[in-house]
């Protein structure tokens, strides 16, 4: 999902 | 992870370590805005709370810990260890004028009204403007040490590379996060004037000094 993908950035 | 994201992270890492080394080697934090550094520490703290709740990869966790550790070490050096060299008289930007509006905005415009998500949003918004006290300080004193300008260039470059990373991710993964993109654009735009001075002066071997 968008939320999970987003959190892989620093 | 694409090459722009990776070089963005590395550029960020170079910036943080460069600043820390500069302060350590010269035993001085003259010309560095403590307020900007406190805000960056706040940015990392509020963004990386998911270190405890959401494991992504060893790379991700290690980088978060390094950013956090270096950021706190920098604040410690400015306000404790090398406090005597801190140029507080010139670090006069009112941090509350950034933190309070940014906090309000994070409450109003976010992806999800949960504590972690609001804090993440707050960190994204705050990061976009956290450099302002530092830029303000340079404008006030009219000059910056060359090593400080290298730090600022690496720090500005990091978000610019993230912008390219987001374009890449939009095309190849169909992924985009509007909050991060808008804040990232604001953040990069704030550096444009500095980038111009860096390229036209510092890269030609001149010290960065502004006309009086």
UniProtKB/TrEMBL annotation, chain B:
Pfam families: ER_lumen_recept. InterPro entries: ER_ret_rcpt. It is found in: Cytoplasmic vesicle, COPI-coated vesicle membrane; Endoplasmic reticulum membrane. GO terms for cellular component: COPI-coated vesicle membrane; endoplasmic reticulum membrane. The keyword Protein transport applies. Its main location: membrane. Keywords: Cytoplasmic vesicle, Endoplasmic reticulum, ER-Golgi transport, Membrane, Protein transport, Receptor, Transmembrane, Transmembrane helix, Transport. GO terms for molecular function: ER retention sequence binding. One of its GO terms (biological process) is vesicle-mediated transport. The chain crosses the membrane at residues 62-80, 119-139, 151-172, 178-199. It is a multi-pass membrane protein. It comes from the Eukaryota. Belongs to the ERD2 family. This is ER lumen protein-retaining receptor. It comes from Phallusia mammillata. The gene is Kdelr2.
